[in-house]
Amino acid sequence: MHTPIDVVVTWVDGKEIEYKNKLSKYIKEHFGTDIPGEDIAGNTRYDSMNEIYFCISSILKFAPFIRKIFIVTDNQNPNLDSFIENNFPQRDTEISIIDHSVVFKDYEDFLPIFNSLSIETLLWRIPDLSENFIYFNDDFCLVRDVKPTDWFRDDKPVVYGSHLNTYLVHLLRMIKPRRNGKKPFGFKDSMLNAIKILGYKRNFLAIEHTPLPLKRSVFEEFFKDNPELIELNLKHKFRNHEQFNPQCLFYNILLRKKLCVIESDKNHFLCIKPVGRSKNYTKRKIDLFKRTDKIKFFCVNSLDQASQNDKQLISNWLTKTINIYF
User: Fold this and answer.
1) What's the distance, CA 198 to chain centroid?
2) Quick check: 41 and 238 in contact, CB under 8 A?
3) How far is 155 from 214, CA to CA, in rounded Å?
4) Half-sphere exposure of residue 257, counting CA atoms within 13 Å on the CB side?
5) In the chain, how many H helices and how many E strands?
6) How far apart are CA 153 and CA 135, in angstroms?
7) Which residues of 150-202 form beta strands (DSSP E)?
8) Residue 39 dihedral angles phi and psi, to the nearest 5°
9) So what's the pLDDT on residue 44?
10) Burial category of 28 from C-beta neighbours within 10 Å (exposed 0-12, middle 13-18, buried 19 and up)
11) What is the number of other CB atoms lying within 10 angstroms of the CB of residue 166?
């Protein structure tokens, strides 16, 4: 019997009318007449193309050892019950919807929140969450069988990432072109803020955009000693250049203590970014999956902005790979 492992998935349906109205209200209050960039509050950050169906079903299909799946959302429900019952009637994994108000208990003044970095800062506070858990964005999927040891070995989280030179990443940020007069705030920028907190000067462990194995007690202990850092991330309703990536912080804490396993082989995951690509880009990516049996993790970025042909290609491939029907 392996140590219990849960999955936490963050999800939002930005097309729901009530949510759109709430989002629009706070965008106007926060930004006034300024138009926020896509990296801060663009539609693609919130719009859903039913990725949650592929995400959850892939976990049930390829990681049946998962104890519980927690879907963290803002007063919404993806209504998966009949779909899951039809496709996985014999499942053992429990699925629960967790509202933001639950993880933001004692921090309700910061709600509503439209910022993934803020939400990620508190995921470890989910009631009954196992010590070892995996964090998924809703645009993540599993595409082949995984084992507990793909995520934890000798009770140490496996980080799919590599060491980067801090000075080089800073340089790349300096030369990054501006958009609408501002430098976009991206994934690596949030990681730079995390390692700055830890005082890393030369190198740091950078994470990839894959499902991330985490330990609840590490967050609990760190934020107990550094409560001010919780509010540093929570005070921003929308993504802000001051914020840090909680998962990058987590792994670099463990790296110092030699309590994580580094897996630098990038052949384990496939990421498709279909917007603004050449005609056969998506097909070539899917063909790459078919040519190697190493790929287990999949991510698709901005599917809502992809062409209809690419949406259909990805949907058909995932439906067949996971073996589900709608």
Assistant:
1) 22
2) yes
3) 10
4) 10
5) 13, 12
6) 17
7) 152-153, 156-165
8) -70, -20
9) 46
10) exposed
11) 18
Q: CB of 276 within 8 A of CB of 244?
A: no
Both structure tokens of 290: 């078919």
Whether residue 207 contacts residue 159, with contact meaning beta carbons closer than 8 Å, is answered with: yes
Task: Quote the tokens at residue 314.
Answer: 């990805």
Sites in the chain below the pLDDT cut of 70: 1, 33-49, 181
**In sequence order, what are the residues at sequence separation of 6 or more whose Cβ sits closer than 8 angstroms to the Cβ of residue 228?**
none
Measure Cα distances from 322 to 181, 196, 272, 298 in Å. 43, 40, 17, 12
Residue 297 to residue 189: CA distance in whole angstroms = 23
- Residue 249 and residue 197 in contact, taking contact as beta carbons nearer than 8 Å: yes
- Amino acid letter for position 220: E
- Matching residue, tokens 């005609």: 279
End-to-end Cα separation, the chain, in angstroms: 34
CA distance 293 to 299: 17
Question: What would the pLDDT profile of 56-108 be if each residue is shown by its tens digit?
Answer: 999 999 999 999 999 999 999 999 999 999 999 999 999 999 999 999 999 99
Q: Specify whether the CB–CB gap between 229 and 197 falls below 8 A.
A: yes
Cα(177)–Cα(193) distance, rounded to whole angstroms? Answer: 20
Residue 164 is classified by DSSP as E
In this structure, what token pair is assigned to residue 320? 């067949």
Closest CA to 219 of 110, 122, 127: 122
Cα–Cα distances (Å) from 31 to 28, 72, 78, 258, in that order, read 5, 26, 29, 43
- Identity of the amino acid at 232: L
Query: C-alpha dihedral over 84, 88, 89, 94, to 10 degrees?
Result: -70
Q: In sequence order, what are the residues at sequence separation of 6 or more whose Cβ sits closer than 8 angstroms to the Cβ of residue 284?
A: none
- Give the whole-angstrom CA distance, residue 263 versus residue 285: 22
Nearest to 272 by CA among 310, 300, 305: 300
